[in-house]
Write a structure and sequence with these properties.
The complex is a heterodimer of chains A (158) and B (429). Chain A has one domain: HybD-like (Rossmann fold), CATH 3.40.50. Chain A has 4 helices and 5 strands; from the N terminus they run E-H-E-H-E-E-H-E-H. In chain A, helix 1 crosses helix 4 and helix 2 packs across helix 3. Chain B has a single domain, classed as Orthogonal Bundle (Cytochrome-c3 Hydrogenase, chain B). Chain B is 44% helix and 18% strand. In chain B, the strands form 5 sheets. In chain B, strands 1, 2, 3 and 14 form a 4-stranded mixed sheet that branches. Chain B has a 3-stranded antiparallel sheet with strand order 6-7-8, with helices on one face. The N and C termini of chain B lie close together (9 Å). Classes of the chains: A alpha/beta (158), B alpha+beta (429). Chains A and B meet through helix 2 and helix 3 of A and helix 4, helix 5 and helix 6 of B.
């Protein structure tokens, strides 16, 4: 049975930085036991450790590339390096993008690694997600559910 | 080159947000500033009105790298108010989880953040392309620290099983056994890593620091001890406020610490090591001697080696604790809720972490004060820059900036903890 992990990354207490974790929580209800769902604060080595042994990984995080809030980027990590916009939000400057690139350098990325980055707008402590980002988390959760269902359909014995 | 300004608007590979500026006039460093502009987080203010039982779980949130330090400082301080004394296996379990945090924090800093400086890489990602095996082993080593945190604390970041009086649940002997196997599995690498890192090229930069650390009569300090220094300080933790002072400087949202009437001091691995060499395990002492570290070390660039010596100590100490472990009858000790004040300091990976609390008759917090190690080291970091940069002024700007960043990373500054990011500014006129 192929192993799928979903990592929601960020800080739920800092506005739109909580986008990844909020999406993970939505998926926990939608997917139940069909994927391992983990919430992380974004430290690269911990992200890398959670990818160990997975066949498919979905990583969800907030990003800032100056596009409108709520814009969703879907990146297949196999297609090349992640843009810098996905590494600026973590402490140490050592977060999601570093985890992916370190995993690539060490040959430790799951065969299928998909990153969903949600464009954030406000990262103030104590504030909730902005409206556009909250809506994007629902859309991303649904897209990941569909992708996982399609993966399952492909791997199901006929 | 008579004068210039070295300015960095964002220092990478440190925890949190800050900047750095060095002003050079007539070939000499006139001024160095570590500018911390991350907004204050007001932890002390929002602890007020909370029950003493909530405090460790709130203070744990100050840092994702060293939550145990923030839990242990508050727990010990509050236990003093409640008349709780922890000994035996509960005390040992606290040392064990702290060993987990030291391993996790030190190995992260040494290999992921600081080693690239010495090996000439911009980041561990480039380093991993040439030194893949080393990085893989380092990741395994760090993971053992995380596993200790998870086994004892319930989860690796912001543990949930640590409380005033002890733990909510203590592990069985059998639950600790896999940890012992993993620790034995990384012990050889812990030694190999010290030998490897000790061969790095270190700038010949030493200063006459006042090192301050805890010292305990029978063990390398983690949770307990007296505050001592190499310049004659030997005080109980209760005298912290009378001995140290915090002042506000315009360029930092974190307060600066000084010894009253004396000035800046140095806390963290180099201080702990230099004041407690005799309390390290025989293997840690022997490997330190073998690689040329004396019983004291005044070169902050060698802190990377000292962190690994301490990591080896943590591995061996954790193995000792697990081998002798018998689950205590009760997971925690009850105290008497009463009004009072208590303070304590423990040795966080980056140095002394001081806490003081006052609670009322109902056990609600009326006053809280937390002083993070990075906050204490800020004036010393600035003095390092002022002293060392003068010798590096012939370097091209890019290299000079890089060397300055490296000097700051010697302290593994955790800016989020101290206030709580870094930008560099060198003004050569």
């Amino acid at each position: 049975m192929p192993r799928t992990v979903v990592l929601g990354i960020g800080n739920i207490e800092r506005g739109d930085d909580g986008a990844g974790r909020r999406t993970a929580r939505l998926l926990r209800h939608m997917l139940l036991e069909r994927a391992e769902i983990v919430e992380l604060d974004g430290e690269a080595t911990t992200i890398l450790a959670k990818l160990e042994g997975a066949d498919t990984a979905y990583l969800i995080d907030a990003c800032v590339s100056n596009l409108p809030a709520g814009t969703v980027h879907r990146i297949d990590a196999k297609e090349g390096e992640l843009p810098q916009a996905y590494s600026d939000l973590s402490t140490h400057g050592f977060g999601l993008a570093a985890a992916i690139e370190l995993g690539r350098a060490l040959g430790r990325l799951p065969p299928r690694t998909i990153v969903y980055a949600i464009e954030g707008e406000c990262f103030d402590p104590g504030l909730p997600l902005t409206e556009a980002v909250a809506a994007a988390t629902v859309a991303v959760a649904d897209r990941i559910r569909q992708e996982i269902e399609e993966d399952e359909a492909c791997t199901k014995p006929r | 080159m008579a004068s210039k300004t070295i300015k960095l608007d964002y220092l990478a590979r440190v925890e949190g947000e800050g900047a750095f500026k060095v002003v050079v006039r007539d070939g000499a460093v006139k001024h160095a500033e570590l500018r911390i502009f991350e907004p204050p987080r007001f932890f002390e203010a929002f602890l007020r009105g909370r029950s003493y039982m909530e405090v460790p779980d709130i203070t744990a949130r100050i840092c994702g790298i060293c939550p145990i330090a923030y839990m242990m400082g508050s727990i010990h301080a509050l236990e003093k108010v409640l008349g709780i004394k922890i000994d035996g296996q509960l005390r040992e379990l606290r040392r064990l989880i702290y060993c987990g945090e030291w391993i996790e924090s030190h190995v992260l800093h040494v290999f992921m953040l600081h080693a690239p400086d010495f090996l000439g890489y911009d980041s561990v990602i480039q380093m991993a392309k040439d030194h893949g095996d080393l990085v893989k082993k380092a990741l395994e080593f760090k993971k053992v620290g995380n596993d200790i945190m998870t086994t004892i604390g319930g989860r690796e970041i912001h543990p949930i099983n640590v409380r005033v009086g002890g733990f909510y649940r203590v592990p069985t002997k059998r639950e600790l056994q896999p940890l012992a196997e993993k620790l034995k599995g990384v012990r050889d690498f812990a030694i190999e890593a010290i030998r490897l890192v000790a061969k790095f090229d270190f700038p010949d930069s030493e200063r006459d620091y006042e090192f301050v650390a805890l010292r305990h009569p029978s063990e390398y300090p983690l949770n307990e001890g007296r505050l001592v220094s190499n310049k004659g300080m030997d005080i109980p933790i209760e005298d912290y406020d009378a001995t140290f002072e915090e002042t506000h400087v315009e360029h930092s949202t974190a307060l600066h610490s000084h010894i009253r009437g004396r000035g800046p001091y140095f806390t963290g691995p180099l201080a702990r090591y230099s004041l407690n060499f005799d309390k390290l395990t025989p293997t840690a002492q022997q490997v330190a001697r073998e690689v040329g570290l004396g019983k004291t070390c005044n070169n902050p660039f060698k802190s990377i080696v000292v962190r690994l010596v301490e990591s080896l100590y943590a591995v061996e100490e954790a193995l000792r604790i697990i081998a002798a472990y018998e689950p205590p009858e009760k997971p925690f000790v009850e105290g008497t809720v009463r009004a009072g004040s208590g303070c304590h300091a423990t040795e966080a990976p980056r140095g002394i972490c001081y806490h003081r609390y006052t609670i009322d008759d109902a056990g609600l917090v009326t006053f809280a004060r937390i002083i993070a190690p990075t906050s204490q080291n800020q004036p010393t970091i600035e003095k390092d820059l002022t002293s060392f940069v003068g010798n590096w002024l012939d370097l091209p700007d890019k290299e000079l900036q890089y060397r300055c960043e490296q000097a700051i990373r010697n302290y593994d500054p955790c800016i989020s903890c101290s206030c709580h990011f870094l930008k560099l500014d060198v003004d050569r006129g």
